[in-house]
Every structure is written in structure tokens, then in C-alpha cells.
Amino acid sequence: MSVLSALPFLKPVHLRSPRSSPGGQRRHTLPASEFRCLSPEDAVSVFEIEREAFISVSGDCPLHLDEIRHFLNLCPELSLGWFEEGRLVAFIIGSLWDQDRLSQAALTLHKPRGTAVHIHVLAVHRTFRQQGKGSILMWRYLQYLRCLPFARRALLMCEDFLVPFYQKCGFEALGPCEVTVGELAFVEMHHPVRGHAFMRRNSGC
Question: Which of 7, 16, 172, 205 has its CA 20 to 30 A from that of 60?
Fold first, then answer.
């Protein structure tokens, strides 16, 4: 059984409004939404969203196109994309890490025996921002991780201005991260991944 078929909350969600309201006025049809793991074929779409989201803010991307392909080949099961009518609108890419804290090597390595999921990047397409999609996608991703028997916690690093966003998602700050990118410094944050038995009983995991 594939990971996707085992997880009901990753299956397509078709959102359709009634054709007409009680007053007889036609309502807009909402697009169908789908959450699924990414594949290497999604790499270009991922990079286009990421490049626009990050270069304007920090001047660089967390992952370049070859690195995106690298992780989507090694561990596609640790990614999650949100598609609307087949169009990628938001995504997360992660890999496994085997130490308590992130180091410079975590930027490019996937440790198959690790129990920490390093979230490299979360990005939302510019036309879909300020709609809460980043928070919703992160919630779905954390629920997904709870169904992976090897996952014990999620780790990420972010700039100071993003700390409140991730705190609202349930992450706690661990302090300054030893990883630097150019002149950028980061805060390291983590989120315990709990509830394996509960999720298996109640979500088909």
C-alpha cells in the first residue's frame, strides 16, 4: 500500500459549491484541492514558487533546482504539495537528519536512518498568500509525519521574522542555529511528532 493511499487526509478533497443559491443566483464553483507527495517531475514548479518567494526577501533560495531534484529523488515521501486544479500552489520539502541539532551538512544531506525530519522549505505561490495556506499545509504535513513510524520530531531553521509564524504552528525555538548562509543567521525550531498509535487506530496509518 502506498503512503498516499494509507492516509485519508492526503487524498484529493473536492470542494464544489451548489450550482445555485436559494435565491436563484449562481454561485462560483470552487476548485478541487489535492494534497500529495511531490515527485522529481514537480521540481521546476517548486523552484519557480520558491525563487519568487525567497529571492525578493533574502536574495537566495533555501534549495536550488538541482537540490530540489536531489531531495525529491532521495526522499519524496518527506515532501508535500498542495495542488488546486492540478496547479501547485504551496509545498514543503523535508529530509531525514540524525542529530539533535542541525549543522551545515543538513542543508544537503538526507540521513535515511535519522528520526528527525528537517524541513528545508515551505513556500506558497504569490497569488495564494495571505489566505492561511501556509499554516494549513504545515498542519497537514505534521499530521502526515505522525503516520511515519520513524519520525520523532520536525526541525527547521528560519529568520527571526518568521519565528511567530512557526510558533503558531506549534514549533518551539531551540535558540540560534549554527548554520549560516552568507550573512544570514537563523533560529532553530522543533516540533515533537507524537501520537503514532492514536493516528494508526484512527487514520488508517
Answer: 172
